[in-house]
Amino acid sequence: MFLALVLGSVVGAEVYLNQFAVHISGGHSAASRVARDTGFINLGQIGSLDDHYLFEIPHRQRRSATHSHEHHTALTDHGEVGWFEQQVVKSRSKRDFHPRDVAEQMSVLDPYWKNQWYLHGGAQGGYDMKVMEAWREGYTGKNIVVAILDDGLEHNHPDLIKNYDPYASYDLNDHDNDPMPRYDASNENRHGTRCAGEVSAEANNTACTIGIAPDSRIGGIRMLDGEVYDAVEAASLSFNRSHVDIYSASWGPDDDGKVVDGPGKLAKEAFIKGIENGRGGKGSIFVWASGNGGSAHDSCNCDGYANSIFTLSISSTSENGIKPWYLEECSSTLASTYSSGAYNERQIATTDLRQRCTTTHTGTSASAPLAAGIVALVLEANRDLTWRDVQYITLMTSRSDPIEDGQWIVNGVGRKVSLRYGYGLMDATEMVKLAKVWRQVPEKHECLITSDVQNVPLASGNKFSSQVLTNGCVGTSTEVNYLEHVQARISLTHSQRGSVVIYLTSPSGTRSKVLPARSNDVAPGGFDNWPLLSVHFWGENPRGTWTLEIEEANMYNRRSSGGKLASWSLVLHGTRVKPVRLLNETSPATTTKTTAATTSSTSTTTTKKPSTPKVEACHKECAGGCTGTRPEDCNECKNFRVSSTRVCVSQCPDGFYTSGDMCMPCDASCATCSGPALTECQSCHEGRHYHQLKDKHSVCNIECVDGFFYSTNSCLPCDVGCKHCESSALHCTACRKGYSLKDDKCVSQAAVVSVMFEHITLSIVLISVIVLLVVFIFMGLLYMYRNQLFFWSDRKMYGPVPREDEEAVVRLTYSDDFDEDFKS
């Protein structure tokens, strides 16, 4: 069984946090003002999502069974709030389980290389994923950065330490820069370290295994070992997107066959911003495990991450090329890799927690990182590939022949595709070869067709069919002639949601099951404009009639009372012009030009020498000629070229750093920088504070982090021991662990104990002196009393004073007591 992160205290009950995601325009200062107005604390921007902030209710219990009505009202009534949502804990499952001889020998020092059967022809029929051939071509993932979104990364593991990238790493659970996993007796948080080793384990270092991309850089985002909510997912998916090339995720909603769940508003925004702005505008690559709910009859089309058009959804096949028991059949799956299968089939070898190795990594959790490693090889071969280029290359090169039970269909352009495996087993060598001659695909269009069917009853036991006719939005700005992803957006209710089965058939006759029966989903429910994705129509022309069929599966003889189809629509993603144009293909324009410029050496026709065309002067920043007068028309640049615009400039503008003769973009948080990472800022945009780190790196933060205070657009360090300080390094308002606050200063508790000991010692000495003085005084007084030395004793010792009429000289007399003493 797989390991589930059950984060709610009551199954099925929503758990509300004391944090709100809020959309506010106007920057950090505006957000902080709104936070004060509405009774919140502004915790700062959420990941790299502009104008999205995380607010927290102060002095309020973190979890609650109900939402905060008063704060909902306050945000609703505030004029500057565009949108808000109280954060809800989400249940997310890691997609693994807890539960020969090598055909080709190599001179490899890694002890578990022999267990990596999927790399050296160890699968049934001698198949593998043809990674070694890509290595021989020289592609090992050099300078490609992969981030594992999971439960942590043991970055001091001997097989990972060389390739560890701190700029691709963060701990969202403990809010620091160290993604090291939390250790416990059961090694619960081993998942991320295992996934990382599949991608980037160093080669020939005598430690464990070899990663698919052994020279790639690997980072870890620790985000699963705690409460997972929308803001956490969004921050993970958008972390340092100008630096990270590939995000690999082997988790998702519970694979129990009952749940329909996906990314929230913030996570959706993170996906969109990632494909728009990631990798310098070419788009972040999101690789996702399709799911392990096969035994629960689950479908990854009910998983909003695996069925997103932005993700590379990866399934698994076993070493014998057959369906693993955990596999989810799904029309959104693009391709597959090898992974575990039945109990007697081999599993995946990789790094493990506590600097160990394992040969028991399993499930689609193991498949997604293998795919991420292959994509790293592909990006090394061609850094200019967009996120859509990677999807095209993946499906065009995947193989059906290593798989025994694919239940393949052939779509309208002659490609084999399967509900189980997508377009087949990934082939690293063919992907690299195609990448080297690939041209970027044209602009993507979205053509929307809305059915006029509304609120139609779905009678129990009956089939329903609806058709829409489309011309692919021809003649409009959204015209689509070559399909990529197709989404059927469905809104319906049903007494047994899991009994609903839906098919979509294209004008070319390709019939795709976009929703299978889910026997565990027996409760009443439905779909609210839920996108059911199919990649089975890729390359087809969309023009003609599309057919949606809805039928009801008879699950264990349970009879339903039917339901209602509220509405449905079709979203056609694709291009207007032919998308695949390779560099070794000759275009008609090029052919015409070549022919016109060719003259026969045997021609006797006298022709007038053509006049030299007038060429206007190149721009002053050009070198080596030009094709026009603009700075972007230069063949070469005299100084620098801006990577995103291709414009030649004398020096790199703000927001870019110099890399050779190129101006490369800074992280979005930096105004100026020395490199691409968010820790290489040299100055900050308005609303951000410059923060110098101890390791000579610097960042631009929305707010000063613990241990720093704001002063003149910078974050300066507080005094030693201060967790928070205001206006001055010495004006502490809260202390770090081991320090105590005293007179606005944080004093080491050890020093406090020492001072207290000195004070106590001094007090004991003083008290002792005082006691001794008191004793001495008492003894003195006692002595004087006993010896009649007090002045008032004189009247008893001596005789009376003589009267005036007596003689001046009187006889000396003694008291009776004295006389008795004397006589004796």
Description:
The chain is α+β, with helices and mostly antiparallel strands and 824 residues long. It has five domains: 4-88, Peptidase S8, pro-domain (Alpha-Beta Plaits), CATH 3.30.70; 100-436, Peptidase S8/S53 domain (Rossmann fold, 3-Layer(aba) Sandwich); 445-575, Galactose-binding domain-like (Jelly Rolls, Sandwich), CATH 2.60.120; 622-746, Hormone Receptor, Insulin-like Growth Factor Receptor 1, Chain A, domain 2 (Hormone Receptor, Insulin-like Growth Factor Receptor 1, Chain A domain 2); 791-823, no CATH class. Helices cover 19% and strands 27% of the residues. It is built from 13 helices and 44 strands. Strand 29 and strand 30 (634-637) form a beta hairpin. The longest helix is centred in the C-terminal third of the chain and has 38 residues, at 749-786. It starts with a strand and ends with a helix.
Notable features of this structure?
824 residues; alpha+beta; Alpha-Beta Plaits; Rossmann fold; Jelly Rolls; 7-stranded parallel β-sheet; 5-stranded antiparallel β-sheet; 44 strands; 19% helix; 27% strand; globular; disordered N terminus
Briefly say what this structure is.
Belongs to the peptidase S8 family. Furin subfamily. By secondary structure, the chain is α+β, with helices and mostly antiparallel strands.
The low-confidence parts are 1-12, 97-106, 586-615, 804-824
List the total number of helices: 13
Number of domains: 5
CATH hierarchy class name of the largest domain: Alpha Beta
The description of the largest β-sheet is: 7 strands, parallel
Strand share of the residues? 25-35%
The fourth-level CATH homologous superfamily of the largest domain is Peptidase S8/S53 domain
Structural class: alpha+beta
Please tell me how large the radius of gyration is: 39 Å
| CATH-scheme architecture of the largest domain | 3-Layer(aba) Sandwich
Strand order of the largest sheet: 9-10-8-11-13-14-15
State the helicity in percent bands. 10-25%
Taken from the alpha-carbon principal axes, the silhouette is: globular
- CATH fold assignment of the largest domain: Rossmann fold
The average pLDDT score comes to 85
Task: Tell me the total number of β-strands.
Answer: 44
Ends distance: 112 Å
